[in-house]
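Lecture 7 notes: from sequence to structure.

We start with a single chain of 253 residues. Read the sequence below before looking at the structure.
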Amino acid sequence: MEEYRSEEEQVEALKKWWDENGRSTLTGIALALVAAFGWQGWQEYREGQREAASDLYQQLLEAVAGAEQAPAQQGVAERLAAQLKTDFSGTTYAQFASLQVARMAVADDDLDAAEQELRWVLAQADSGSDTALVTQQRLARVVAAKGDTEGALALLDSSGVNPYQATYALARGDILLAAGRSEEALTAYQLARQTAADDAGQVSLAALEQKIASLQPAEPRAIEAAPLALDAVGDAAQPDEAEAASVDGEEEQ
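Now the structure, written as tokens:
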């Protein structure tokens, strides 16, 4: 009887707990299942979006590659880029597509279109990301080509850690040199040389050294005086030899 009563008490306690908590427990389980299946569905959706964007971007690259032989392919590339920006604006593929269109616009000397594409990328890319830093550097060159030197330099005036500091310095040097500010350009080129080893981008050191050499003043060379001869023949010949030495020295300088 004691065991029976104990079992009855356990059943009653279970019923009481179920009446008080059963509905909320079922609701929690249902919500957990919905969340699990919803997350899985969202992941599958995002994966599908990425694959679709990747396919479009691959088509765009093929169109860009064929544009040199078939100019009509450039229009195809621009349409694909527009589709990526409309349907998949949150993906990096859309940003890369816009960079490709900007490059084609620069080749066509359409700097306004290039600037528009590059500013769109900056608005979409995460601040401080590689995409944003590279885009900002390209935009600076486009802005400088349009005649806004100060605006271009402001774009290159980045603060904080910049893995592209050498290529940024190189761009500053090119912009300053084009503006006729040679001394400032030389300083920028020298900074590019100092930081080239740590730069995430690619800097042609040979080309950089040529730019530095073209701006650095040539160091004067000391001219050694020709020894004086004591005999008559030497004394007679000395003026002509001294004059030749002087001319040679001036040519060396």
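Residues 2-66 form the longest helix (65 residues). Keep this in mind for problem set 3.
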